[in-house]
Amino acid sequence: MAELDDLYHSDQYLGPETLTDLCFKLICDNLDIISVKGKHGHRTLRKGLAFPAEICHKFIEYMQRSETRENDDCFFSIFKDTTATRLKHVKIISCSLTDASVQTLMKHKLTDLELTNCTNLTVLSIEHVNANSENLRSLVFHGTSMVIPSRLTLGTDENSPVKHYERGYVFKTPNLRRLALGYVGIPEREYSLLLAGLTNLTHLDLSNCFELLNFEFYDHVPNLVSLTLYNVKVNSDPIAFVNNICHLTKLRHLDISQSNFKQGQFEHPNRILRRIVLGLPELVSLDIGGTNLAGRGVAERPLDTVLEDLTNNALCDIPGLASRIHKPLQFLGLYGTAHAACKRHDIPAKVIAGDANEDQILIAAHVCMNNKQELLQKVLSDLYHVFRYENCQRMDQALRTVLEAMEKHPYQKHIQISGR
C-alpha cells in the first residue's frame, strides 16, 4: 500500500542520536552555557551571543524534553531580545508558561504558534497574539485552558480584563489561515463573535467543544477548505447541521468523528451522509469514525448507474457514499463505526482508517496521533492484537507508531500503558 508507506520515513527513530542532537540536549540541560539567571530566576542571553531561528526553534524543542527542566517562564525570557534571537514557528506542549511568555514569543512576529495543554494561560494570551499578529498564519490552542472564557458576553463585566462584546471581536489576526481551539465552552450564538473578522480562514478545528453545534455561523468562515469537529455534538439537529455546512462549498476535508458513542448516533444515517457528500462537491477527505453514518451495509446503486456499471457489479457497501463510486474519496475515516463498516468490500475510498486489518489500523493511528488521544489508546490496543495474535507484516512501521505515540503523549497514562 503505497499511501501507507508515504506516512513513514525510513530513517525515523533509527540509529543513534546525532552530534547536533547531543549538543542541543547538553545545552538545554545546562542553560548556564548560553544564559545568565537573574535575581528572580529569569534568564537572559549571554552578551555576544546571537542565534538564528533554526537554532532557537531547537532550543525550545529540546527544552521540553530536558530532564533538568526549570520554570518555563524563566526559560522563555531568553527570547526577550528579538535582535539576538529569532523565532518563526513555535510549538509548545504541556508547559507551565504564562501569558507573559506568550507576550515574549509573539514579539517575534511569529507565523505559527501552537500551545497544547498549557493550562496557565488566560484570555490575555489572545491579547498578546492580537498585538503582534501581522505575520501570524496558524494559531493552535489544543487541550484545556482559559484562553476562551465560558461566556464571551461576560466581557461587559467591569471586572473582566477584555470586553469582547463591546469591541466586536476576539481575534484581530487579519492574515490567519488556520485556527484550532480545543474545549471551547461558549454557547453557539457567541461563535459569530468568536470568529468575527476571520473570513480568510481556510482551516478550522473546534474539536471537543462542549456545546452542540448546528454551525449557524458558517457565513463568518466562507473560505474553509478543512473543518474538524472531532467529539463535537452535531446529531441533535443533523438536518440543520448538514444544511449549514453545505454552504461551505470549498470544503475538501470534513471530520465529524466521535469517541462518544451517543454523539455518533444519527437518525436516518444514510440520508444524512448522502446529503453531506452531495452538498460538498469538492470533498476528498471525510472522517465519520465512531458514528453510524456508514449505515448497515446494504449495497445501493446510484440513480444514474448505467448498464455497463451493473455488468461490472459496481456497487457501494456504504449507502450514503453511493454517489462517489466513480469519484472515490482520497481518505475515509471509519475507525469505530457501527456495523463494522471498515470491513465491507465495496468502499469508494482510496485510503481507509479502520480496524479491519493491519494497514487500516496503522492509518488510524496516524490520523489519531496528535489530538485524538481517546481513540489513539484504542488503536494501539488493536495494533497490539495484530502483533500478538496475527501475522504482523509491517513490524517496523508498527514500532515507529508506538514510539511516536509514547513520545508525543508522555503524560497520557493509558497511551503509555498501551504502548508498553
Describe this structure in words.
Helix content is 30%, strand content 11%. The chain contains 15 helices and 12 strands. Strands 3-4-5-6-7-8-9-10-11-12 form a 10-stranded parallel sheet. The protein has a two-stranded antiparallel sheet with strand order 1-2. Helix 5 runs parallel beside helix 6 (124-131), helix 9 runs parallel beside helix 10 and helix 13 (373-389) packs parallel to helix 15 (413-419). The longest helix has 17 residues, at 373-389. Residues 194-337 form the Zer-1-like leucine-rich repeats region domain.
What attributes does this structure have?
single chain, 420 residues, alpha/beta, 10-stranded parallel beta sheet, two-stranded antiparallel sheet, 15 helices, 30% helix, 11% strand, globular, LRR_dom_sf, Protein zer-1, LRR_Zer-1, Zyg-11_UBL_adapter
Characterize this entry briefly.
30% of the residues lie in helices and 11% in strands.
Topology:
Layout: H1 2-5, H2 19-29, E1 35-37, E2 43-45, H3 53-63, H4 72-76, E3 89-93, H5 99-106, E4 112-116, H6 124-131, E5 138-142, H7 164-167, E6 178-181, H8 191-194, E7 203-205, E8 226-228, H9 238-245, E9 253-255, H10 269-279, E10 285-287, H11 307-311, E11 329-333, E12 349-353, H12 358-368, H13 373-389, H14 395-408, H15 413-419
Parallel strand pairs: 3-4, 4-5, 5-6, 6-7, 7-8, 8-9, 9-10, 10-11, 11-12
Antiparallel strand pairs: 1-2
Helix pairs in contact: 2-3, 5-6, 9-10, 12-13, 13-14, 13-15
Pfam families: LRR_Zer-1 (PF25013)
Domain Zer-1-like leucine-rich repeats region: 194-337
Protein name: Protein zer-1
